[in-house]
Amino acid sequence: MNVPRRCVVKIGSSSLTDPKTGALKNEHIAFFVQECVTCMDKGVQMVLVTSGAVAAGFAALGFRSRPSALHEKQACAAVGQTLLMHAYDTALRAHGRIGAQLLFNRSDFADRARMRLAEATCDELLSRGVLPIINENDTTSIAELTFGDNDRLSALVARITKADRLVIATDTDGLYTVDPRTDANAQKLSRIAHIDASIWNMAGASGSAVGTGGMRSKIGAASIAMLGGIGVCIGRIAQDGDLWRTMTLCGDATVFDPSAHGQSMKQLWVRECAIVQGHVTIDAGAVHALCMEKKSLLPAGVVAASDAFDAGDIVEVRGPDGSPIGRGISNYAAWQLRAVAGCSTHDAMQRIDVVRPEVIHRDDLVITAQ
Question: What is the CATH number that goes with domain 6-263?
């Protein structure tokens, strides 16, 4: 049996609320807590990423459905988060366990120091037998600082907590070639070793009025976790023991194998967490050097740079047609780069004073183009 040391479990709003009214169902929370406690009792350190604050809040505030205005959703989250945590606390105390609330937004992960503090906090809680319960801070988040859905947040949490496995609970028992709710010929995929275009094409949108993610967002989360050497299981957790069976790869879920080509925490930060401050356009030769030869970006390959970014900022690298190639940490400010665009490395170093000759060193570059 493949038992992980540490596991992150993500539960969506649709799993915690009444499908008709959107109201929080305490018995659903009690069920998932029981599942987590069962795993904890067997020696697995568990981390829970939960949705449900906005869903719980809009029902409590009298909305008939999930509101669309930002201030309404934030008000619902403010009310709903207290209801959500109270329900979790009540369920955990029935088992002699305690939970800890951690609320994040993207800026917490964009700052590497804050990301390390979050990691240390989770380690301390887990060492003391506490169940960390994590959600996005919907009350204060703005569009530029949101994760979009908790699937992605769960993958980032799995990475920073150095989990061995990520379980994403959904309303189906895994990934199918087409939507099994509408096509009787749908075939389930039991194991996926690599996420390619064919896998992305199988994904759809959210299937719930109270949720924000769909299978596509879950595949995106799986790709983040896999690059960190974390196995991912996507499936239904509905019966007693389902979480344990799924987590130990004995359940009826789709399993995504860890990538053999891992990604460092620094590369994770560059690709998924840091806020992009500008962009650099490069020529076709530089695209080939970066993507095929895995080289650093040099001044000779630069065509243009956007108006304002500083040395040390994250920039998006774009090809001649403007399509994104990757992103990385620039060693040049935008004005410096415009001054030496197209120059040889020797000439560039003669013209301006920079610490490193590379515009973006290979170790600070992540290629995102498929």
Answer: 3.40.1160.10
- Token output for 269: 């930060």
CATH 2.30.130.10, the chain: domain bounds: 275-367
Sign of CA dihedral 205, 57, 14, 144: positive
pLDDT the model gives residue 213: 47
- What is the per-residue pLDDT across 205-214, written as a single tens digit (0 to 9) for each? 444 444 444 7
Q: Are strands 131-136 and 45-50 parallel, antiparallel or unpaired?
A: parallel
Answer yes or no: are the C-beta atoms of 314 and 329 closer than 8 Å: yes
Cα gap 282→64, rounded to integer Å: 51
The CATH number that domain 275-367 falls under is 2.30.130.10
Q: Judge contact between 150 and 221, C-beta under 8 A.
A: no
For the chain, the helix, strand and coil percentages under 3-state DSSP, each to the nearest 5 = 40, 20, 40
Mean pLDDT of the chain: 89
Listed residue (12, 71, 61, 7) closest to 39, CA to CA? 7
Could you tell me the two tokens for 111? 């700052």
